[in-house]
Amino acid sequence: MTKPTLRAIYGGTFDPIHYGHLKPVEALAQRIGLSRIIIMPNNVPPHRPQPQATSEQRKTMVALAIAERPLFELDERELRRSTPSWTAETLDEVRHELGPVQPLAFIIGQDSLLSLAQWHSYETLPALCHILVTRRPGYALKMKTPQEQAWLERYLTDDIRELHNRPAGRIFIADTPELDISATDIRKRLTQHQSCDGLVPAAVLEYIQHNGLYR
Ligand code: ATP
Questions:
Q1: Percentage of the chain surpassing pLDDT 90?
Q2: In whole numbers, what is the pLDDT of the chain averaged over residues?
Q3: What pLDDT, on the 0 to 100 scale, is given for residue 47?
Q4: Strand spans (E) along the chain
Q5: Quick one: pLDDT at residue 43?
Q6: Is 55 touching ligand 1 by the criterion CB < 6 Å?
Q7: How far is the CA of 139 from the centre of ligand 1 (A)?
């Protein structure tokens, strides 16, 4: 029987999706040998103000961004829910679907790693999946407290083989390019009629402009 390949999920609000999302995870995929990344936009981000674009619009922008990027696939499961998107619950659901052996990973940026200890049931994540972290400029490489740092170090690895050979339980911080791009800044630029060329894929920018988003 062939070994199941590592499956990776990338969650986020994507309000809107931008190159700071796409480029670091493309580099990550290359670095560790991922043939597929599942992008999963969330519905009601529990710790955050509501997104400005609707779920449908955020989904459409993701679909436009990945249309010519075969690495990515869209998963709408969190958008179909009316309840908050708790990552740990979604990953528990995915783990049940995949069974205990399939290697599974959740991808986050460095900023999300630093706030992970505030996520609902975050301590259950290593039992469910690996966590793959991409670099983001301006965010520390150390956790906020010694307790959180000790938690992180329990799971940290730089051995890529472990990500493929084990179903879950490792945290890998990848040496990915740092892009100083955020959805907050893009929304602000759009409100102020500043250019977002090079920050957002052209098809997404066209959609934003055509639909008058983020004015
Ligand atoms: P906002 O500015 O609205 O907070 P965002 O740009 O941080 O949004 P999200 O959709 O909230 O985007 O992020 C989804 C995931 O992408 C998170 O794990 C986040 O850490 C990561 N991410 C976002 N921008 C970058 C970036 N420039 N570099 C690396 N990771 C990023």
A1: 89
A2: 94
A3: 62
A4: 7-12, 37-41, 72-74, 104-109, 130-134, 171-173
A5: 86
A6: no
A7: 12
Q: Is residue 16 in contact with ligand 1, taking CB distance under 6 Å?
A: no
Residues whose CB falls within 8 Å of the CB of residue 53, separated by 6 or more in sequence, listed in order: 15, 16, 61, 213, 214
Dist. CA 39 → ligand 1 center (Å) = 13
Q: Give the C-alpha distances (Å, rounded to integers) separating 82 from 42, 152, 168, 185.
A: 11, 32, 28, 28
Q: Say if CB 130 and CB 105 are below 8 A apart.
A: yes
> At residue 101, what is the residue type?
V
Q: Which of 140, 88, 78, 86 is nearest to 109 (CA)?
A: 140
- Pick the atom of ligand 1 nearest to 107's CA: 18
Tokens representing 79 are 């958008």
Tokens of 132: 């793959």
Q: Is the CB of 112 inside a 6 Å radius of any atom of ligand 1?
A: yes
Distance from residue 12's CA to the centre of ligand 1 (Å): 7
Of ligand 1's listed atoms, the one at least distance from the Cα of 14 is 10
For the chain, which residues score pLDDT lower than 50? none
What is the number of alpha carbons within 13 Å of residue 185 lying toward its C-beta? 12
CA of 183 to the centre of ligand 1 (A): 7
195: tokens are 């250019």
Q: Is 40 helix (H, G, I), strand (E, B) or coil?
A: strand
Instruction: Give the model's pLDDT for residue 44.
Output: 65
37-41 and 72-74 strand pairing = parallel
